[in-house]
Amino acid sequence: MRSKTDTSRYIGRFAPSPTGTLHLGSLVAALASYLDAKVHGGTWLVRIEDLDWDRNVDGADHAILASLQRCGMQWDGEVTWQSRRLALYEAAAHTLRAALYPCACSRKEILDSRLNRNAVQAAAPVYPGTCRQGMAAGKAMRALRLRVPPPAHSTIHYTDRWHGALSQDLADAVGDFVIRRADGFWAYQLAVVVDDAAQGVNHVVRGADLLDSTPRQIYLQQLLGLPHPSYLHVPVVTNPDGEKLSKQTGAQAFDTGAAPEVLLRTALLPAARFLGLEIADAASLDDFWRRALPAWERVLDEHARAPSTQA
């Protein structure tokens, strides 16, 4: 086990959304976070991020937990559900109230704004600040937004353990962002920050699709006076069209009740190889985990030696 730092303080987590059963893409994130906690002698928590109630699938949360256990990944302590922690998000929003304002803009209006009209549209277009000085007459509030500082004063710098030195200017890249959505749900950015702090999470290991979210979360941590976790974003699995593997892009569940040796061959070994772990064909689940821990340490050492990159 790694012992260069105070490993007793390491707390990591895996935080799946119960929109379906685990697939190879989500298994990669679970495996990386689990291995990182174990090689540091740390605690590995599981949190069900079920705030998006319209997309939740009945029973998916318990199916996810069962799959983790069948793969040999046992969490520490009790599993938590975000839907049971709404008072925490409400309290955080109250703390942020001076920086929040109501917004009446629809997604189409934001896309059609002059700021975004001639740009290649991303999943989250830059908010143009339409409602910063108040909503237009007759408009109804759709969301709560958080003000970010003007350009050149809103750059967030951080170091990712996989990607190196990164930065993002929130004003240029995102603009004022949503804290409570039009459907009334608390936004992911707020909930994850509040939950990580409440649970003492100080090491976040997750997919690189969330790299763009990290600066917003660090900014929220600054405003709320919360500690900043260490971040590590692993590559994401994609389908043949280059899209992130997910239920929406046709990802299939890997755990269909097959025997452990089938689960090992069809799920765990492919996930490990995707992460760059040098593991020869393991004879059993126990054999896999014996080989996976030192293999993950080797991967960490390679990234620690690699030149850092700038975003």
Overview of this structure, please?
This protein is of the alpha/beta class and 311 residues long. The protein is 35% helix and 15% strand. It has ten helices and ten strands. The strands form four sheets. The protein has a three-stranded parallel beta sheet with strand order 1-2-3. It has a three-stranded antiparallel beta sheet with strand order 4-5-8. The longest helix is centred in the C-terminal third of the chain and has 21 residues. The two termini are 31 Å apart.
Q: What structural class do the secondary elements suggest?
A: alpha/beta
Strand arrangement in the largest pleated sheet:
1-2-3
Tally of contiguous helical segments: 10
Low-confidence stretches: 1-7
Order of helices and strands: EHEHEHEHHEEEHEHEHEHH
Main sheet summary:
3 strands, parallel
Strand content: 5-15%
General form: globular
The average pLDDT score comes to 88
Portion in helices: 25-40%
Distance between the termini: 31 Å
Number of strands: 10
SSE topology:
Elements: E1 11-14, H1 24-39, E2 43-48, H2 60-70, E3 80-81, H3 86-95, E4 100-103, H4 107-111, H5 114-117, E5 143-146, E6 155-160, E7 164-169, H6 170-173, E8 177-180, H7 188-198, E9 203-207, H8 214-224, E10 230-234, H9 260-274, H10 285-305
Parallel strand pairs: 1-2, 2-3, 9-10
Antiparallel strand pairs: 4-5, 5-8, 6-7
Binding site for Zn(2+): 103, 105, 127, 131
Cofactor: Zn(2+)
Motif ('KMSKS' region): 244-248
